[in-house]
Amino acid sequence: MKASNMRTPIDIPVERCPDGYLKNPQEWNEELAKQLASEWNGLIFTEEHLPILHFIREHHEEHQTTPDVREATNYIAKTKGLDKKTAKKYLFKMFPHGYMQQGCQLAGMRRPTAWCVG
């Protein structure tokens, strides 16, 4: 189900595309991420999400691309000291509706044009 079908009002006014992604990623902040997370049924947003969201944003700023699942998994494996298989499970536990859709949306990215799920 698309985020636009699950949308509930958020307190921070931002312009979004029909799929729920920010049109201007510079408007993102952690409070907005928490509010966006409240639109997703089954997602319990915690402080554990923030390092991944910051990684997505920093990677995008440096490389002008959204990190794919492989890159996010490598980041988690390195920062948490996990093997890659466990890190990938952790990533999908954090974003049960899918890293590329849910993770990138909560990080305030525009909708990725090419989705590689690694």
Radius of gyration, rounded? 13 Å
Helical run tally: 5
**How many domain units?**
1
**Helicity range of the residues?**
40-55%
Task: Report on this structure.
The protein is mainly alpha-helical and about 120 residues long. It has one domain. The chain has five helices and no strands. α3 crosses α4. The protein is globular and about 40 Å long.
Short description:
Helix 3 (69-80) crosses helix 4. The two termini are 21 Å apart. Mean pLDDT is 87; it is low at 1-8.
Overview features:
about 120 residues; 5 helices; about 45% helix; disordered N terminus
Q: Strands, helices and their partners?
A:
Elements: H1 30-37, H2 49-63, H3 69-80, H4 84-94, H5 99-106
Helix pairs in contact: 3-4
